[in-house]
Amino acid sequence: MTDKDFNTVHYLTAMLKAYGIRYVVSSPGTQNSLFNSIIQNDEFFKYFSVVDERSAAYVATGIAFETNEPVVITCTGATASRNYMPALTEAFYRKLPIIALTFFNYNSNEYNMSPQFVDRSVSPNDIKALSVTLPRLNDSSDKNRLMGYVNAALVSAKYKHEAVHINCPSFFNYNLESQELPQDIWTTQYYDADIEKLLPELENKKIGIYIGSHLKFDKETENAISEFALSYDAPVFCDHISNYHGKNKVLISLVSLSAARDLPADIIIDIGQVSGDYNSFRLYNRTKNWRISENGEFRHRIQYRLAKLFHCKEKVFFKTMRNPGFGKVSYYEKIKRIVEDFKFPQLGLSNLYVCRELSKRIPPNSSLHLAILNSLRSMDLCTLNESIDVNSNVGGFGIDGALSSLTGQSLVDKDKLCFGVVGDLAFFYDMNALGQRDLGKNIRLIVINNNKGVEFKLSLQMNKMLGDAVEPIIAAAGHFKGGLKGWTEACGFKYICVKTKEEFLNQLDYFCSDKSDKSIVMEVITEDNDEIDSYKNMLSFNVSV
Known about the structure:
The protein has 18 helices and 19 strands. The protein has helices spanning 8-18, 33-39, 53-67, 85-94, 140-160, 219-232, 252-256, 314-320, 332-339, 351-359, 374-379, 402-412, 424-429, 455-458, 460-466, 485-490, 501-511, 528-544, and strands spanning 23-26, 46-49, 71-75, 98-104, 130-133, 164-169, 189-191, 207-211, 236-238, 249-251, 267-271, 288-292, 308-310, 367-370, 389-391, 418-423, 443-449, 494-498, 520-525. The strands form three sheets. It has a seven-stranded parallel β-sheet. Helix 1 (8-18) runs parallel beside helix 5 (140-160), helix 3 packs parallel to helix 4 (85-94) and helix 6 (219-232) packs parallel to helix 8.
C-alpha cells in the first residue's frame, strides 16, 4: 500500500493502536464500514457487535468500568449517533473514557439534501469533554491538523478519563488482503506524577525553555525557572509578553534574526499560551517538544509534534527536574554571545524606530501594552527594563481592544505610568475607550499613524504582487483624515503630534515622565517608504553581518 492509499480512517486507526486503545463496540452501517473492516482483521483490537446504538454505548460504559481503559463506540451517519447521548451523559459525569467515533459523508451538508446527513457541529456540553471533526487528507497541512485533533482527543480519553467525540469522514477503499497502517504518526506521552524518572532524558542535552504569552509570574515560579535554566545552561526563549524577568532570558526575535537560529535545542520545554512572535516556531523544527500544562489540556505549537505533556504546576516541574549534577552542555552561553552582537540598521521614522527609542526611556515599574503584529514585533527587538510588565491581546489576536485593555491597566494604580503603542487603525477601532470618566493622568499612548494598515505593505510577498492595490480595502487606507487631535483633546488628553525623528526625540523625555497633569497621546506620522525600508533593512542587516 502506498502513502496515497492511506486516508483519514487509516491514520485514526493507527493512532488508536499507538495509544493502546483496543476495545471497540461497533454498530453496523455503511459510513463506518471501512473502519470495521480494518479492525475485524487486526488481532490487536477486541471488538464487539451491538446493533442498537443506545445499548452499544451503555455496553461500552460497562467495559470501561471493568477494564479502566478507553472504549471506542462507532456507528454510521444519520440518526444513529443521536442514540449515543444517554450513555455519553452517563460517561461524562462518571469520568468513563468513551470515544464516540462517528462517520459522515464528506460530500454531504445541511444545504444539499444528502441522505443520512445530521449536523454534529453542536452537541450538549455534558456528553463529551471535547469534539473534533477530522479532515480529508489532501496535503501535509491536513495531516498536521489531523495529528493535532486525534492526539487531543486520545490524550483526554486515555489519560484524563474523559468522554470524547471524533467525527471522521467516511471512505470505501476496502483492501481485505492488506491491513497495513501508516507509520508517519506521532503520539504524546502524558505525565501527572513521578516525573523525576525522566531526569535521565535530560542528561547531556541542549535544553531550551520557551515561554509564550503568560500572566505575571509569582516569585517562586520565576525562581524555579531561573534555577533550572542555570543548572542546565538553558536559554529561556521569550518575547516581552512572556513577562519572564528571570535568568538566561533571550528575546526570540533576536534569535530569529541571527545565526543563533541555526543552533537548535535537543529538547524545548514549552509553557505559556499563544505567542505574539511568529518567528518563534523556528525553534521547533529539529527538537523534541515537552509541554507543561497546569490544567492538563492538550496544546501544541502550530504543526510541531508534542512528545510529552506534563499535567503539573510549572514550579513543580522546574524544581523537580533541576539538574541533579549531570554537568552542563554549553548552550545558553553560545546563544547569548551571538544575540549580544545584534545591531539595529539605519531606520527611518517608523514603528521600529519609535519602539527602539521608547524602550530606552520607559521608566522602571511601568506597564506597557502593545497592539498586535507591527508594534509587538518591533518592541520584541528591543531590551526593556526587567521591572516592566508587558501585555498584548494575542489570545484572540484581533485588532480590537488594545486601547480598552490599556485603559484597564491604567485604572488599577493611577500612580503607575501605563504606556501603549498602537497603529492608526487599532486606535480608531477602539477610540471610544478614551472617553471613560474614570481615567487618570497616567496613560502614555503612542499612535503610529501611517494612514492605513501598513502591516499589509510590510508583507513583502503581498506588496510585490499587489503594490498600491492593497490600499483601498485590504489596508483600508485614507480613513480618519482629520487625525487624532480633536478626539483626544475632547476626551481630556494632552495631544502631541510629531512628523520627524528630531521632533519625536525632542518630545520623548517629557512624554515618558510623570510631569504632565493629563494623560498624553502622541501621534507619530510615518510614511510607507520609511516603514517598509526599515522593516526590510531589519530582516537582512543582522543575518548578513
